[in-house]
Automatic annotation (TrEMBL):
Keyword Metal-binding annotated: yes
Species: Leptospira kemamanensis
Molecular function GO labels: 4 iron, 4 sulfur cluster binding; metal ion binding
Residue intervals of the 4Fe-4S ferredoxin-type domain: 216-248
Highest taxon of the lineage: Bacteria
Protein encoded by which gene: ccoG
Entry protein name: Cytochrome c oxidase accessory protein CcoG
Ranges that cross the membrane: 63-87, 124-144, 164-183, 298-317
InterPro entries from the UniProt entry: 4Fe4S_Fe-S-bd (IPR017896), 4Fe4S_Fe_S_CS (IPR017900), Cyt_c_oxidase_cbb3_FixG (IPR014116), Electron_Trans/Redox (IPR051684)
SUPFAM superfamilies noted in UniProt: 4Fe-4S ferredoxins
Keywords from the named record: 4Fe-4S, Electron transport, Iron, Iron-sulfur, Membrane, Metal-binding, Transmembrane, Transmembrane helix, Transport
Keyword Lipoprotein listed: no
GO CC terms of this entry: plasma membrane
Length: 439
């Protein structure tokens, strides 16, 4: 386990701002309730609904999920190829919380933090505070799945212990305490899958934390000093993953920039510019400007734009209702007097709008352009559903009188239409093939 030295500087200050914003966002977002009483963001697994910025999504909307995952993947490809592992150093919870745990450790133990001779009481105080932070973070993580207001009320009433979420919170608290407190940088170096393939996404033009070996080497060796690097090893001492950036780009580098601040302050004493900074390898080797536009970045940008346009079209044309219709296999259509056909259909309808809506059902014989009568048990085949509410029921379809020729056609192509009564243009249509009974 590596406890790196703290380091102040410009990068540190900027990271503090970004990290405070991200932690604040993480802690506040699950508590936000919109004016229509829906949560700002929540993946409600028992109800199989995803609330996001006022929209309500259900698992049947696979295309939107597909676009979402593709956008995430391509964004990772694009940003890594342009600005390296910025996610690792500035946005990854592993890095942010390791930083927070170190601050707590230093606050309690000061310079004894990470040392074997630190007091036992001090060490256990740090562990206790780490557990408290882990619990708060885990509570908020679970709050993205369960209402934090309900959870808090349960905790206040001491009734949370019988709820599933309580055991998930305990599990995540223990996992976070062990991971951030003791596994720390080992996760980045040996377990993180993103660290494994990031080298494939970057090239010599990617903007990264890089050592200027042209100026720095040969580094000082004893009293011999040729290059600018004075071998103070501060860049290694501050590194949270314990690597030496002077050995080149490595899987272990999380691009946190602490070595940039360290070398900047050391070199300032020598009246020189930092040897470690956000450069591209090509910039160091040739002195040329960073080449932002290159085949790799252009291809990722085009793919990302195509997916974003597709996702936008999908979202803008989305109809916030869902209907599944299936003929009842155990009750095939029957012939009734006047050459009419009676068929039995099972329906599952869900309102996926953030507000209550009234719906109306209608059905058609699409081959002959005739309306089909629906018996749904609802007056005027109209019914109301609250936001997210689902209704499963059976309906009976009754065709108009069919001619002998129509009856001999073998099947009847039909459609069931679900309309929003307040906005008839908002409708869903499901096709249905009704097999006709032989006379
Ligand atoms: S090498 Fe520098 S940027 Fe990379 S992890 Fe270490 S301190 Fe952070
Ligand atoms: S901090 Fe700068 S000067 Fe010191 S060892 Fe690292 S690269 Fe060399």
């Amino acid at each position: 386990m590596i406890i790196s030295r703290p380091q102040s500087g410009k990068v540190r200050t900027r990271r503090n701002i970004v990290m405070s914003f991200l932690v604040g966002l993480f802690l506040v977002a699950p508590w936000v309730v919109l004016p229509d009483t829906s949560p700002l963001i929540r993946l409600d697994i028992p109800k199989r609904m995803f609330h996001l910025f006022g929209g309500l999504f259900i698992p049947q909307e696979g295309l939107i999920l597909w676009f979402f995952l593709l956008t995430m993947g391509l964004s990772l490809f694009f940003f890594t190829s342009v600005i390296g592992r910025v996610w690792c150093g500035w946005g990854c919870p592993q890095t942010i919380y390791t930083d927070l745990f170190d601050r707590i450790g230093r606050f309690v133990l000061d310079s004894k933090y990470g040392k074997k001779d630190a007091s036992i009481l001090g060490k256990y105080t740090v562990y206790f505070l780490w557990i408290v932070v882990s619990f708060i973070a885990s509570f908020h993580w679970i709050a993205y799945f369960v209402s934090p207001y309900e959870m808090l009320a349960d905790y206040m009433r001491f009734s949370a212990f019988s709820e599933t979420y309580f055991y998930f919170t305990l599990f995540f608290t223990a996992a976070m305490f062990i991971d951030i407190g003791f596994i720390r940088e080992q996760f980045c170096r040996y377990a993180c899958p993103y660290a494994r393939f990031q080298t494939l996404l970057m090239d010599e033009h990617s903007w990264n934390v890089t050592y200027d070996f042209k100026r720095g080497e040969p580094r000082r060796d004893g009293k011999t000093k040729i290059g600018d690097c004075i071998s103070c090893n501060m860049c290694v001492a501050v590194c949270p993953t314990g690597i030496d950036i002077r050995d080149g780009l490595q899987v272990g580098c999380v691009a946190c920039g602490k070595c940039v601040d360290a070398c900047t302050s050391i070199m300032a004493k020598e009246n020189k510019k930092t040897l470690i900074g956000y450069f591209s390898l090509n910039q160091i080797e040739t002195g040329a400007k960073i080449k932002w536009v290159r085949p790799r970045t252009v291809i990722y940008a085009i793919l990302l734009s195509v997916v974003l346009i597709g996702a936008s079209i999908q979202l803008l044309t989305r109809i916030p209702m869902s209907m599944i219709a299936a003929s009842n296999k155990s009750m095939p259509p029957i012939l009734i007097p006047d050459n009419k056909i009676r068929a039995f259909v099972a329906l599952r309808i869900q309102n996926i709008a953030p507000v209550e809506k009234e719906f109306q059902l209608s059905a058609f014989d699409t081959r002959h352009g005739k309306e089909i009568l629906i018996r749904s048990g609802e007056e005027g085949n109209q019914f109301k559903l609250g936001s997210g509410e689902m209704k499963s029921f059976s309906i009976v379809l009754e065709t108009q009188s069919l001619t002998e020729q129509e009856l001999n056609e073998g099947y009847l192509p039909g459609s069931i239409v679900l309309r929003n009564t307040q906005d008839p243009e908002e409708k869903l249509e499901k096709t249905l093939s009704l097999s006709l009974p032989r006379k």
